[in-house]
């Protein structure tokens, strides 16, 4: 099996808290490799499949694996946030040069148009479309809403609770 599949299987079975790091396609392979390496180190096995089998057979190894993953999670958070930081730096440099990030502006505009379109369909045509379509359109509207939330968090920073979490992570890395 490929490393991402094994890493995802290990994480979902033995360390579900790190699944969120697999959602970014740029970092999924890196995270999967780290998870597989941790599993191989903890179990002393040479292959990901053997490490997975060893973890399934021994609950004590699972605890060691989970502990090692938590210790490594700080690096995973840093890898995930590095992408956002470089994007923010790019926006700062564009602003210094007197330019706008037209791509980001278009993306947010399309998110707004998509959300409004979904809401209009749901408000005015709900009676005329099948229930499955209503569910699908609602899901698409929620996705557009999440995109707008992410854009706001990128532009204005994240919530206070997230900032407290970030500070806790910074304290742990010291």
Descriptive notes:
The protein has 174 residues and is an all-alpha fold. It folds into 2 domains: 3-88, no CATH class; 100-173. Helix content is 82%, strand content 0%. Helix 1 (3-14) packs across helix 2 (25-43), helix 1 (3-14) runs parallel beside helix 3 and helix 3 (48-57) packs across helix 4. The radius of gyration is 21 Å and the shape is flat.
Question: What would a concise description of this structure say?
Answer:
With 174 residues, the chain is mainly alpha-helical.
Record the SSE blueprint:
Blueprint: H1 3-14, H2 25-43, H3 48-57, H4 59-96, H5 102-124, H6 131-156, H7 160-173
Q: Name the helix and strand elements from N-terminus to C-terminus, one letter apiece.
A: HHHHHHH
Distance between the termini: 37 Å
Number of helices: 7
Number of strands: 0
The proportion of residues forming helix, as a percent range, comes to over 70%
Shape: flat
Mean pLDDT: 79
Biggest sheet layout: none
Strand content: under 5%
- Class from helix and strand fractions: mainly alpha
Low-confidence segments: none
Cα-atom Rg, whole angstroms? 21 Å
Features:
174 residues, mainly alpha, 82% helix, flat
């Amino acid at each position: 099996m490929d490393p991402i599949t094994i890493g995802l299987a290990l994480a979902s079975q033995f360390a579900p808290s790190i699944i969120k790091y697999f959602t970014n396609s740029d970092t999924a392979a890196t995270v999967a490799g780290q998870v597989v390496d941790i599993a191989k180190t903890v179990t002393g096995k040479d292959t990901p499949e053997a490490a997975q089998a060893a973890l399934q057979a021994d609950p004590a190894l699972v605890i060691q694996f989970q502990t090692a993953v938590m210790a490594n999670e700080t690096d995973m958070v840093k890898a995930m946030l590095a992408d956002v930081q470089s994007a923010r730096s790019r926006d700062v440099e564009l602003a210094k040069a007197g330019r706008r990030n037209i791509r980001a502006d278009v993306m947010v505009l399309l998110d707004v148009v998509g959300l409004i379109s979904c809401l209009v369909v749901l408000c005015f045509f709900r009676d005329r479309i099948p229930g499955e379509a209503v569910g699908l359109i609602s899901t698409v509207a929620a996705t557009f809403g999440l995109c707008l939330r992410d854009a706001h968090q990128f532009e204005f920073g994240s919530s206070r609770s997230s900032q407290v979490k970030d500070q806790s992570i910074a304290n742990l890395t010291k």
